[in-house]
Write a structure and sequence with these properties.
Elements: E1 7-10, H1 17-28, E2 34-38, H2 39-51, H3 55-63, E3 67-71, H4 80-95, E4 99-104, H5 116-122, E5 126-129, H6 135-153, H7 161-170, H8 175-184
Parallel strand pairs: 1-4, 1-5, 2-3, 3-4
Helix pairs in contact: 2-3, 6-7, 6-8
């Protein structure tokens, strides 16, 4: 937790970053004031505040949390005014001792068109790279999802080990796509 501030999690698309961030938020949401937002929503609120000339409200809203979780930070790339605001929000939260958790599809140093000072801040805590699962883990994930489907829908058909192994071997691009293939079967 606060020993690693910020906590920066990155991986390719469909590896479960958003699920992980949601879990973190839900787990600590009972005892702390958690703000969970996607970078796109942050940008939307930022633009709205600029248009309505109410940046004070924006700043107050985003800086009052104990835990600030922002998903898909790569979307701030190239948006200078928003990067400026994110930088100040980040610093204000760190100063007051809030935990920051961030996800992206690349490591901080590989974020396109993001200011160096932001990359530096994002690298300042713990950076975690989520690697794609190996074949055995993909098989376990599919079996678990299959059990979930059977319980949820009361399905009584059997899916052979061979089919599960085939799906786990063929669909390796993302967990999301692999589960989608299972749903279609």
């Amino acid at each position: 937790s606060s020993h690693y501030n910020p906590l920066f999690i990155y991986s390719e698309v469909g590896m479960g970053k958003t699920h992980l961030l949601n879990s973190i938020g839900l787990e600590i949401g009972a005892e702390k004031k958690v703000m969970f937002i996607s970078a796109e929503r942050f940008m939307y609120h930022f633009i709205l505040s600029l248009k309505s000339n109410d940046m004070v409200k924006f700043k107050d809203f985003f800086r009052k949390s104990n835990v600030f979780i922002i998903d898909d930070i790569q979307f701030i790339g190239g948006k200078e005014a928003m990067q400026e605001e994110f930088f100040h929000t980040f610093n204000a939260l760190i100063e007051k001792g809030s935990q920051i958790v961030i996800s992206a599809d690349k490591s901080p140093s590989n974020l396109d068109r993001v200011q160096e000072r932001i990359k530096s801040r994002l690298s300042g805590g713990l950076v975690i790279d989520i690697q794609p699962p190996d074949l055995n883990l993909r098989i376990k994930i599919l079996k678990s999802k299959y059990d979930e489907i059977q319980k949820k829908f009361g399905e009584n058909y059997e899916l052979s080990e061979e089919i599960i192994r085939f799906l786990a071997s063929e669909v390796t691009s993302s967990i999301r796509e692999m589960v989608g293939a299972l749903n279609r079967v």
